[in-house]
């Protein structure tokens, strides 16, 4: 009789152990999926673009002095904002890109954005009309041509221009 009780206890214990493992794995699967959803493709693209802008090696779109001096050179920023280059094409993005450079006082500011020659295409600040948008703000310091530096921001907007 005692042998039957021990085998019954072993079956119940094994069943509880398996149910616990299934609950833990399903919880882990749900958590990992929600983390992946938070890191959407737009977010990854915005971070990739920020990394390009804050590196000196991406010619000609890196804007910092060098790896040991991470000041953003305002003359390089001004060249990007002159309108000669399309941000989306230059950065190799499949999404629309709008980048706003500004110092903390707002005295120096410029936009570098995607422009599309198609009639009615999303352009410039029209990213606000997209329902899929991701913004990354990076804080840095700008180096001006007179040698002075000032704190500022780089706001990177990555959007799907076709999601209207």
Characterise this structure.
With 164 residues, the protein is α+β, with helices and mostly antiparallel strands. Helices cover 37% and strands 23% of the residues. It has four helices and five strands; from the N terminus they run H-H-E-H-H-E-E-E-E. Strand 2 (96-103) and strand 3 form a beta hairpin. The chain is elongated.
Which radius of gyration do the C-alpha atoms yield?
Answer: 26 Å
* Termini gap: 73 Å
Largest beta-sheet characterization: 5 strands, mixed
State the shape.
elongated
The total of helices stands at: 4
Walk across the major sheet and give the strand order.
1-4-5-2-3
Strand content: 15-25%
Number of strands: 5
The structural domain count equals 2
- Low-confidence spans: pLDDT under 50, at least 5 residues? 117-122
Give helix and strand order, one letter per element, not per position: HHEHHEEEE
The helix content, as a percent range, equals 25-40%
- What's the average pLDDT? 79
Pairing-aware structural class of the strands and helices? alpha+beta
């Amino acid at each position: 009789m005692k042998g039957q009780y021990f085998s019954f206890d072993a079956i119940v214990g094994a069943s509880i152990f398996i149910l616990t493992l299934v609950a833990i794995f399903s919880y882990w699967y749900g958590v990992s999926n929600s983390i992946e959803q938070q890191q959407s493709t737009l977010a990854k693209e915005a971070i990739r673009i920020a990394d390009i802008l804050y590196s000196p090696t991406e010619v000609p779109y890196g804007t910092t002095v060098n790896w040991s001096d991470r000041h953003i050179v305002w003359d390089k920023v001004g060249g990007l904002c002159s309108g000669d280059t399309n941000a989306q094409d230059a950065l190799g993005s499949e999404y629309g890109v709008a980048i706003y450079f500004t110092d903390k006082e707002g005295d120096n500011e410029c936009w570098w954005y995607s422009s599309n020659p198609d009639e009615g295409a999303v352009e410039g600040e029209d990213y606000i009309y997209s329902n899929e948008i991701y913004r990354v703000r990076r804080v840095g310091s700008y180096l001006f041509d007179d040698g002075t530096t000032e704190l500022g921001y780089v706001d990177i907007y990555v959007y799907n221009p076709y999601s209207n």
